[in-house]
Amino acid sequence: MNGLYEELLSAIHSIWHRRWIALAVAWAISLVGWLLVALIPNAYESQARIFIQLDDALAEQVGIGVADKKRDIERIRQTLTSAVNLEKVVRGTRLGATVNSPAQMEAAVLRLGNKVKVVSQEDNLFQISATADYGSFSDAENAALAHEIAQKMIDIFREENLAGDKGDMVETLAFVNQQLRQRETELESAEQRRTAFEAQHPELAQGGAAVVQRLDSSRTQLRDVEADLVAAQSALASMDGQLASTPRTIPGTAGSGAGAALARAQADLAAMKARGLTDNHPDVIAARNQVAALKGPAAQEAASGGGTPNPAYSSLQSIRAERQAAVQALVARKAGLQSDIGSLTASAIQDPELATQAQRINRDYDVLKDQYDKLLQDREELRLRGEVKTGREAVKFQVVDPPTSPRKPVAPNRPLLLFGVLLVGIGGGCAAAFALGRIRSVFATAGKLEQATGLPVLGAISQHLTDGARAVRARRLKQFCGAGAALGALFVVLLAMEFIQRGTVA
């Protein structure tokens, strides 16, 4: 602890012993530093906020969704600080008066790019910040320039948002129209080739599609006829079974007896089946039960001799004849369809190369036709979207906060810099005095001398000054305090000038 105290005491003595050197160095550092701080131009910042309305029912109806709008606005935000737009800002503000060559323009654009920021605060709220700290302009001119830059950025944002989409849409429509004209020419050529080919080979019209369609239709009809034939044959077989179980004659006189009743019951049953009633129908079941009940008495009556023609048998024979005719017609229809299918198949494979050529011509035509129709639909959708954007986009853009007119600089913090330079000057002076003391090896205490020489120090003699010497020392002390106070006073004056200058900026 004593060693540390001696070191501190030695350092203070060394600095105080060379206090004029420390003060001179402090003055030199402070003056140079304050001069450099004074040369730093004040930076003035202007801010503005703009709002973009995204949701629009009509725009979404025609396919302009919120995602498309966000993507467009993000694209505008990213390209807003491009070199082309920054060059527009330079030419549209007082910066353009300082540019006389392409190299100067490039340098001005690069410098301006670091002073303009576009920040997305929300999905549809953007903040534009512009800073001006040009040494060739006064503070008032820099403040006005920051406002001009922010306003010009808003104008460019509006131009990109309103006219940019319109310009892009016009270019897109022009490209689509060019593609449409090209596809139309190709489609006309393909149609002429198809027309010429079909004129030479009418049987292969539409790439042989007519033959293929007829063949498919005949095969479909053949499947239907085969199904109908199976159903008709089944119905005929059922009728043959009923006819076999029905007697040709019934005993007794016509119109009376059990035989006549049986005949009437069988006739009613046959009529019901002829109407299409199924075996599970209640009337058919009742008629069948009645026939079964009358068969016994009718058989006994027939055993006694005599009989009359059974009308039920005659009715079943008529129905069987109709069903047999239907089966024969279906058989003939099936044979005709099989013959047609055979002839169509033979004609299709007669010249396969010609059929392949017809299919290729029609395939090319169909592809070109689909492309043309798709491009035509896309063009109409683009035109509608462009009209919606052009007609409704103007109400979407709104300046929430216009560009501010800065009154105070945002940088640099000159009071803090001035104070920092003063501290650095004082510290530099003390460091210079301390270093000089180390170089010249002056011992401030007896202990330091004993430690340095290794010899015992018997004692120390204090300095005794005369009245004249004390007067000279007091005068020099006053001069030193005055020089130090002058340094502090100059710092206060510079601070006052800085605040006065800030207050006078228009």
Describe the structure.
This protein has 506 residues and is an alpha+beta fold. The chain has helices at residues 2-17, 19-39, 57-61, 66-80, 83-92, 102-113, 139-200, 205-244, 257-274, 282-303, 311-348, 352-392, 414-440, 446-453, 467-503; strands spanning 44-52, 116-120, 125-132, 249-250, 308-309, 397-401. It has a 4-stranded antiparallel β-sheet. The radius of gyration is 57 Å and the shape is elongated.
Outline of this structure?
Helix content is 74%, strand content 6%. The chain is α+β, with helices and mostly antiparallel strands. The longest helix has 62 residues, at 139-200.
What structural category do the secondary elements indicate? Answer: alpha+beta
N to C succession of SSEs: HHEHHHHEEHHEHHEHHEHHH
Oligomeric form of this entry?
single chain
Alpha plus pi helix count: 15
Label the overall shape: elongated
Q: What gap, in angstroms, lies between the N and C termini?
A: 60 Å
Q: What is the strand arrangement across the widest sheet?
A: 2-3-1-6
Q: What is the helical fraction, as a range of percent?
A: over 70%
- Percent of residues in beta strands? 5-15%
Spans where pLDDT lies below 50 across 5 or more residues: 57-66
Would you tell me the overall average pLDDT?
Answer: 77
- Largest sheet entry: 4 strands, antiparallel
Indicate the radius of gyration in whole angstroms.
Answer: 57 Å
